[in-house]
Amino acid sequence: YHVLGGVLNPMEGIGAEQLNITSLANRITELDAKEIIIATNPSLEGETTAMHIAKFLYIIDVKVTRIARGLPMGGDLEYADEITLSRALDGRREF
Hints:
This protein has three helices and two strands, in the order H-E-H-E-H. The chain is mostly helical.
């Protein structure tokens, strides 16, 4: 795993240069990684950071994926919003 040390947040003055994204790219190259799984929080800042990382890593020949998100175990469908339900469906697997 690789710790970024935060998320992009222009309102707080946190840009890409404050995160450990360059060191991530260096590790990917050194380790000859084939896939990077991004697991940032499902907030606006987390989503923005994930998209920035994916664009940054585009120049490196590595597969970039994102963990699935959706409803927690025991969660009630009645309280789920449209985006959560959509992502739960996108991340579904056969069993």
